[in-house]
Amino acid sequence: TECVTKTIHWITGNNFTVERGQQQIEELISTWRVHESCLHWSEFLHEEELEDSKRYHYRACWSIPTRRKPIPRATASVYFIIEISKTKPATSPVEVFFTLESSKLVHRAEQRPFREKWLKDIIENKIRVIERL
């Protein structure tokens, strides 16, 4: 099947707010191909000041509730960073990255398609650990 990706027009550094950043992350998530049974909520975590940029950290927490188990046994988190460069013009768009919990691999938001399997693998691994305990 052909994967159609919606292009997101990222906000510029001079127009950025924490709330607008969260809205844009939700817009990005809406382009991901995940089953409607996968639910999530997102939140702003903190701001980080670096020499050449300012980073805003967010988290989206995912679960897959079912009719038999409406309270999920495990969740999977996706962490986002919105980075505003201090060296580029303020009219430049922000850069957006994401990583999955338990992974060190950092993805550029629009260069790597998100895979629902990543969420399921994290959740299934957590459930296996819980069952062993």
UniProtKB/TrEMBL annotation:
GO terms under cellular component: cAMP-dependent protein kinase complex
The terms under GO molecular function for this entry are: protein kinase A regulatory subunit binding
The record ties this protein, via PANTHER family, to: A-KINASE ANCHOR PROTEIN 14 (PTHR35075)
What protein name applies here? AKA14 protein
Output the lineage of the source organism. Answer: Eukaryota, Metazoa, Chordata, Craniata, Vertebrata
The gene behind this protein is Akap14
